Automatic annotation (TrEMBL):
<protein>
    <submittedName>
        <fullName>Phage antirepressor protein</fullName>
    </submittedName>
</protein>
<feature type="region of interest" description="Disordered">
    <location>
        <begin position="179"/>
        <end position="198"/>
    </location>
</feature>
<dbReference type="InterPro" id="IPR003497">
    <property type="entry name" value="BRO_N_domain"/>
</dbReference>
<dbReference type="Pfam" id="PF02498">
    <property type="entry name" value="Bro-N"/>
</dbReference>
<feature type="domain" description="Bro-N">
    <location>
        <begin position="23"/>
        <end position="139"/>
    </location>
</feature>
Length: 198
């Protein structure tokens, strides 16, 4: 990471400032999702390695402060990225990503993950009892990235298409209602006794 000029903190130590060139730019098509009991954890594949959206992991582990959680990780275990077309829960286009090793560290360091009955405990058990053994045995867990990405892309296309169809249908309904009003007006004007029969 480059240091910008005048980037000294009060004690005279260099403090790195992140510039735009250090933020990974990711396309939303490169995101896959795993789900556990209704919680989604988005995964981005970078150089064939999975990176997890920190806010999603923290939500699953019932950790309220994402920033504090990732501060405990090594520098190479987290990074910042922007994902085209998606904004974070704070409304910003930037996300903290956590490497696989950081993902496991967050789980093992979570206090709630050690308390029976908590969601975080069930999530940690799922990761350690189902996900990791499956990866060890088969080399993967669940649906492969390519297939998930294809499904995600097609779901997005469907949503866009169905939204457009919904707008078109609404426009058709409005047009139909307008034509019906126009028809009544014509009949009323030229043959008022027919309108009374209806």
């Amino acid at each position: 990471m480059k240091l910008e000029k005048n980037s000294l903190i009060a004690d005279g130590f260099a403090h790195p400032k992140i510039s735009q060139e250090h933020i990974l730019n990711i396309n939303s098509d490169n995101i896959s999702v795993i789900r556990f009991e209704g919680i989604q954890v988005r995964i981005v594949k970078i150089n064939n390695e999975p990176w997890f959206i920190a806010a999603d992991i923290c939500k699953a582990l019932e950790i309220k402060n994402v920033t504090n959680a990732i501060k405990t990780l090594d520098g190479d275990e987290n990074t910042l990225c922007s994902i085209k077309g998606i904004k974070s829960s704070a409304g910003l286009p930037l996300f903290n990503l956590v490497a696989e090793s950081g993902f496991y560290k967050l789980i093992t360091r979570s206090r709630k993950a050690t308390k029976d009955g908590t969601f975080a405990h069930r999530f940690a058990n799922w990761v350690f009892r189902d996900v990791i053994p499956s990866i060890r045995r088969t080399g993967a867990y669940g649906v492969p990235f390519g297939e998930l990405n294809d499904l995600t892309r097609r779901q997005k296309q469907y949503k866009e298409k169905s939204s457009q169809r919904g707008r078109d249908l609404q426009a058709c309904r409005e047009e139909k209602a307008s034509l019906q009003r126009e028809e009544r007006a014509l009949w009323s004007k030229h043959q008022s006794d027919w309108v009374e029969e209806c």
